[in-house]
Amino acid sequence: MTAPLLSIRDLKVHFPVRTGRVIVAKYQSLRAVDGVSFDLAPGETLGIVGESGCGKTTLGRAVLQLLPVTSGAVTWLGREMTSLDAAAVKAARENMQIVFQDPLASLDPRMTAGDIIAEPLRNYHPELSRAEIARRVGELMEQVGLLPGMVNRYPHEFSGGQCQRIGIARAMILKPKLVICDEPVSALDVSVRAQVINLLKDLQKTFGLSMLFISHDLAVVRHISDRVLVLYLGKVMELATRESLYQAPRHPYTQALMSAVPIPDPAKERAKPRIILAGDLPSPLNPPSGCVFRTRCPNATAVCAEKEPVRESSAPGHDVWCHHWRE
Amino acid sequence: MSEINMAVPDQAISDAVEGRSLWQDAWRRLMRNKAAVASLVVLGLIALVSVFGPYALAWSYDQIDWDHVEAVPPSWALKHYLGTDSVGRDLLARTLFGGRVSLTVGLLATSVALLIGVTVGAIAGYLGGKVDQVLMRFVDLMYSVPLTFFVIILMVLFGRNFILMFLAIGSVEWLTMARIVRGQTLTLKHREFMEAARASGGSTAGILLRHVVPNVLGVVIVYVTLTIPQVILLESFLSFLGLGVQEPMTSWGVLINEGAAELEITPRTLIVPAVFMTATLFCLNFLGDGLRDALDPKDR
Does residue B3 sit within a domain? Predict the structure, then answer.
């Protein structure tokens, strides 16, 4: 394997939350991302899945340094990002862009589509002439499936899918090496979803991109990812290649997630064994001791409350964080 | 999707569509708004006659008609087209000259308020934290200083000066503007497109100029149209206290004040400046509305 493009080690993002009375302020830390490590190879797509509030989005933002990182290392092209100053972070962002979840909200309502797509180009290459910018914007609009004649339209005049294409074009215009897709299709209709996913795959092939694909939709992640990382309460549960994870999930949480994916055939759907997790997601303000999943885990034993599970390889390229994965 | 495609076939076919900015679009939309265009024309006319009118008249604003030191009714023979005030000065000349003062004060003081208010408000709202605290506490402090007291201090320090009045009025009017803009900025700050702007490499200044300011303009413009009349009236109040323009110089505010006192004897001394001022304010309101609509791309 070549040197990783992005390497994350023990990344922690904690938010201070004020919990005290009005006068005596007490701060607790909300552990949105708590000790995540992974590598991303050039051209690879890593899917990040997990339920709401497990830290998927925070993880994506932290990689881009859009949020302050509490501790840990984000190494981008061999450089440690968390200690860089603002100018260096800005320079690094030229190669890492992001596509947001809500297509309309991520576009400035007072800017035309052309201006939105051109914005990163203007920020990083102010020396380019207007004609050159217009040419590149037009070219890219065609690549993402928008008519170049739409440059003067405002975001509210586009459909959700078209807005997301604008968002994708904006992320692609700098020809980045990494694009973080933060639930790019969750807000779209199923029919448009497939188009946008295929567009992302095409662009990935054309530009040789790496992607961090954040989603809670297992089917979408399976379609697009090379490897998949399962998050629960800010911690990694399982990290494996797509085939290995979908065929033989080792972690009880992953198994539960898989069993929740509906099957279009009603007969099979009814016959399928369904693992239903008890209880709700514990508060990230006060996560359970030991293994964070133990409160809802069907296989939990005494050891789970005492010791935090460590990374164990169940197969080459398949890592799992569970005391009982062998069972 | 198909509906949108069908709507623009000819536009889409011609490959090289000129890119337009929000400002160009706004200008086009403003020009389509009849009330706004008419207001713009009337305002232009009022400004023109205020600036050049006094040169064309036989009487100047400070000249007393010694043959008729009294309120002369409108008379073409004496070239007092709208009559004179109680000491025999030509009313039209005074009104036009007063227009210069009032329009200048209104425009400049509001611009000062606009510039400072938007800058401070946007910076405080966007940066937040300590910067926000310091700036907003300063605004609170300024709010608590009485205007007249503040103006008197300025006069004592710098002497009486026409320009000082803009500064004095502007320095009071920007406070509310700053508060409004800060509030708007706070609601904008957490929208996803602001994060997108940061991710695409925007500097703080760039984001403020390109994303924050255009998005708060709608509210700001409405507030500006409310501020201009306020400023014009504030000027007459300062003049009344002897802190603004001094006789024989005059302004609409001063003329209206004087006219109101003589309302029962010579109502035209009130009506003439009042008509000019009301027309101006009406036009500003229509223009403000037009601008607000023009700057909102959703409204076309």
Answer: no
Distance CA A262, CA A252 (A): 18
Q: Supply the DSSP string of A109-165, one letter for each residue.
A: TTS-HHHHHHHHHHHH-TTS-HHHHHHHHHHHHHHTT--GGGTT--GGGS-HHHHHH
CATH of the domain at B159: 1.10.3720.10
- Cβ-Cβ contacts under 8 Å, B11 against chain A: 149
Q: Which helix (H) or strand (E) holds A36?
A: strand A27-40
Residue of chain A minimizing CA distance to B296: A110
- How much is the pTM? 0.81
Nearest CA among B122, B102, B91 for reference residue B237? B102
Residues B69-96 have pLDDT tens digits of: 777 777 777 777 787 777 778 888 888 9
Q: How far is CA B269 from CA A174, B92, B265, in A?
A: 67, 10, 9
Structure tokens at A26: 């007490």
A109 contacts on B by Cβ (under 8 Å):
193, 215, 297-298
Q: How many domains, in total, are found in chain B?
A: 1
Residue B143 belongs to domain spanning: 20-61+98-295
Residues of A within 8 A of B19 (CB-CB) are 112, 114-115, 118, 130, 134, 137, 151-152
Cβ(B97)–Cβ(B276) under 8 Å?
Answer: no
What dotted CATH number matches A6-95+176-248? 3.40.50.300
B93 falls within a domain: no
Q: Across-strand partners of A212?
A: A46, A180
Q: Is residue B80 part of a domain?
A: no
Task: Convert the pLDDT of each residue in A134-170 to its tens digit.
Answer: 899 999 999 898 988 888 888 988 988 899 999 999 9
Taking the Cβ of residue B69 and every Cβ of chain A, the question of whether any pair is shorter than 8 Å is answered with no
The interface predicted TM-score (ipTM) is 0.81
- The residue of chain A nearest to residue B218, with distances taken between CA atoms, is A110
Closest chain B CA to residue A192: B1
Residue B278: inside a domain: yes
CA distances from A103 to A189, B129, B185, B201 (A): 12, 29, 21, 19
Range 18-77 of A in CB contact (< 8 A) with B: 61, 64, 66
